[in-house]
Design brief:
149 residues; alpha+beta; Aminopeptidase; 5-stranded mixed sheet; 4 helices
Length: 149
């Protein structure tokens, strides 16, 4: 029997579980050592309103999450950036990811955003197919730049 799940906005008490899911995502993306943000960093960002999150719960356990923040496109205007999106492997295929993604799209609309953006690894064929099923444009001509301090 499949357990029921529900999607809700994250609370401060959820941040430890959210960070745990970020670590799981980093392992999946073959960069487990790349996560250096601490729970304290998450708390500060959450309390200041810098980051927002929604979580999926099954039986009181957080099994998936989206983490996002507002940003601005000089070409389009206000947008929402989806930083992380993950559902624990054993809970995939139940519609949880789709519901989290739909909730994020709705949050972007509710915030007055004209666009939502995110990144996806070029080798993550499952995620690319998911986004394309959701009518997303996957840009393949832009390269990412970054400087880590």
């Amino acid at each position: 029997m499949t357990q029921e799940y529900h999607i809700r906005f994250a609370q401060k008490a959820d941040l430890e579980a959210i960070l745990g899911l970020v670590h799981e995502l980093a392992v999946f993306e073959k960069e487990p050592e790349a996560v250096t943000a601490t729970l304290s960093d998450y708390v500060q960002a959450f309390e200041s309103g810098l980051i927002h999150s929604q979580v999926a719960e099954v039986g009181g356990e957080i099994v998936g999450m989206v983490l996002y923040y507002d940003t601005f496109s000089t070409w389009r205007g206000k947008m929402l950036y989806l930083e992380d999106f993950v559902v624990r492997e054993k809970y995939r295929g139940r519609g949880i990811g789709q519901d989290l993604f739909d909730a994020t799209l709705q949050a972007a609309k509710d915030r007055g955003c004209v666009m939502m953006k995110w990144q996806v690894l070029d080798w993550n064929a499952g995620a690319i197919k998911f986004y394309e099923r959701n009518n997303a444009t996957i840009e393949r001509e832009w390269w990412n730049g970054k400087i880590v301090f």
